[in-house]
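User: Can you model how zinc ion sits in this protein?
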Amino acid sequence: MSKPGRRTLSAMSVRLLAAFFAATAFLSALSVPPAHADTPELPDRIVAAWKTDHVSVDERLRPTMPAAELTRIRTAVKNAGLPVYVALVPQSPYLSKGGYDLPTLLHARVGEPGVYIVAIATAGSWTVGGTLYRPAGLRGRDLYSVKSEDKERMNLVYDRPAPQIVRTIQQAATAYDGRPLPAVPASDLRPERAGSGPSVTDKADRATFIGMGAGGFLGFVLTLVLGLRRRKGTVKRAKSVAAKPVDVQDVQLRADQKIQEAERALGRLDKRANKTTQQLDRRDDAYRRLDAARTLRADQPDDLLSSAGALVLARQAERVASGAALQPPCFFDPTHNPGTAKVDWADDIEVPACQQCASVVRRGNTPRGLRVPTKSGLFGHDTKQVPYWTLDPEDSPMVATGFGALSDDLPEQLAASRKDGVR
Ligand SMILES: [Zn+2]
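Assistant: Here's the modeled complex, given as structure tokens:
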């Protein structure tokens, strides 16, 4: 079967791998996790575990998984009224290069109707995805439309798996037989956003609980960006390429407009009858990006990095939902046209860039890039504008991923950092 979507994603992976290998060359002194620390046999392992237990917990997570979480998940599975398959796995390079396809892969192996849920533990948070496969001819609603109407879904806690998994099971049951969605217990909801961040003790506890997760991979991306930052001085600066500062309001407007366009594109896709597996995959991916874009706009409405991140994610959601190929953003400035060119930059690291920035780099200069004010808390009244990639990647998933240009896992990293209270 022809799968243009997959081709696009694997083209992206190739680009990323190229960037990683280039990075490995100059970071060879550091220990780097192998590209396939996890293996493609992961789906087979999960399916084997499901033969005896529909809630499969990866062995790497078992030592730290609280029994109470599993009890809640099992109770929800038992009361669902439809077949439910749940897999809890740690994040890995294998998953981050297309983990949202996992429910589809798993369903293809099991071949039974039901809801397939994959919960991925990343350093600091859980990302939960699910796909509902109905028996042929069964009427009912779509899981995605139930999900998108569920106002509570964005308010669930991320630091343990049961709240999101139980909610996904409830949403699937509503889609399956039309029963009303129950209220979310208060203990599953995040405290108001005004609340202060988690204490050091909370963080330590969570780190123990989450286990190994994606630390290695994430660390690698951060190292890569740090490498880029250190080497920025070695590249000649452009004299004055479009010195006009970015207008925050303009980026906000464009992001909100794109979010609406993505919603409309998803609405059209939702209305299509007899969607193919590929269309279901696309919809899953588009919702993941759109949800992250909406969250960014809601959480930090005035922040330039967040608004630009929302613009990138909404633009990708709109394209994916419309059946167009996924495009990475321009690494230098995500508000530019998408990064349809590839350029070697700073010690031969390959980054996606818009045509304009690509030609600047090919002339041996550094594009002006998206400029942000340095933090006033650190520099007093300093209002200096610096390229965003010189900021500390640990402070922002947008910086750490180059808005998704360096690694296509911005939604996951946002969920993780959000839980950590990192801005
Ligand atoms: Zn550009």
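A couple of observations from the model: Confidence is low (pLDDT under 50) at residues 1-37, 193-242. The longest helix spans residues 248-271.
User: Helpful, thanks.
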